Amino acid sequence: MHNYPDSSGFFYHKMEKSELLNIHSFTEYIDQFIKLSIDYSPKLIMALIILFIGLYAVRLINRLVRRIMIKRELDPTLSTFLADSLLWTLRFLLFITFISKLGIETSSFVAILGALGLAVGLSLQGSLSNFAGGMLIILFKPFRVGDSIEAQGVAGMVSEIQIFVTKLITGNNQTIFVPNGILSNGVITNFSLGKNRRANLLFNISYETNIKTAKDIVIQVLEKHPKVLKTPAPTVVVNLLTDTAIQLSIRPWSKNIDFSDMCSDVLEECKEAFDKAGIVIQSFAKEIPKK
Fold first, then answer.
1. pTM of the model as a whole
2. What is the crossing angle of helices 259-277 and 211-224, to 10°?
3. Which of 82, 125, 210, 240 is surrounded by the most beta carbons within 10 Å?
4. Per-residue pLDDT tens for 62-81?
5. How far apart are CA 218 and CA 221, in angstroms?
């Protein structure tokens, strides 16, 4: 700001030309902003209305789908996965509709998302393998929640089948997470598919023992045990003749839920019965490899 005298001898404030231009430009910006706001506000309001109504509709559809799957008694893991997949798919479509209503070009946006998805996919190949494995497990159901399985060197009860991992609870209450990728591509032993399960219990007895007598003693133990099934009938056979002992294989059947208790009881009662009959139980000899 500079002071200039007028014809009357008084001073007045006179703005420089550049300052006048700045004020004029600022006024133009304000006018343009107001004009754009007035022109763009209907699109923004409509887009927000679509967004809020869409979010409510997505939640409503998701709840309805979950209720339908529960009524049809679908597998809980499959129901959760399908419901979550539907939820995120609808949210993605709603987002595309929202930005399209705002006037943003969706084709370029989708192309950017595709390139981003490819980059993320290449960097997360292991996770995608686990995701694909989870899909296979959920669809083909080699096991379900609550089944007892053995796979990848671990055994336990299936507590939860997630998208990337399967959660197992061991007999000593430890939690094991097995990646679905290696789980779906490996050997899985499911002990719960059948209602009944057969044990294979081994005893080494002395060569001086009468085999028929020993087998009769074991059969009596099995017939008296309440958890040993009568059908299929249990069997006792000579499994192997080693250098030091006769190896008996005791094969009783039981329900899955009684299997562990039955095995423990049969081993204990057979040992007591052999001791009373004077039958000598030989130790299991390990073979020493020749040098």
1. 0.57
2. 140
3. 82
4. 888 888 888 877 767 667 77
5. 5
